[in-house]
Amino acid sequence: MTLAARALAQLATWPDLRQTTPSCGLGQAVSSAEGEIAHFHSERDVDLRLTHRAIRRFSKDLSGSGPVRIVPGSQWVTLRLDATSDVDLLLTLVSVALQAQQTWPDPADRPLFGCNDQRGAGFVKADHGGL
Length: 131
Prior knowledge:
By secondary structure, the chain is of the alpha+beta class.
């Protein structure tokens, strides 16, 4: 089982999340009642929607983390899952994302753009194979 598949299986057990098809149409996703949280695009790359405000608040910590890529202007961050500790970081950031959607929601008038993979801004172009 890949790290992404392991993380997706764990997140699927969380009561506030459900597995869905990502709006970008690539891979698998998890969503909360407030919207999409994570897109699993390949065996290693996950886009996580933190909201603009949460990214601003945690940008210093996130930018110093090797497995995390921040894309300017995006409400999504991309995580590269290379080790079990990266899965732990993803699970922690999903908790932050759930809280951010409730505490720091993006204004309704702010345009929503697709995830980082859809922008071609992830670590690498998605491998469109399965998890």
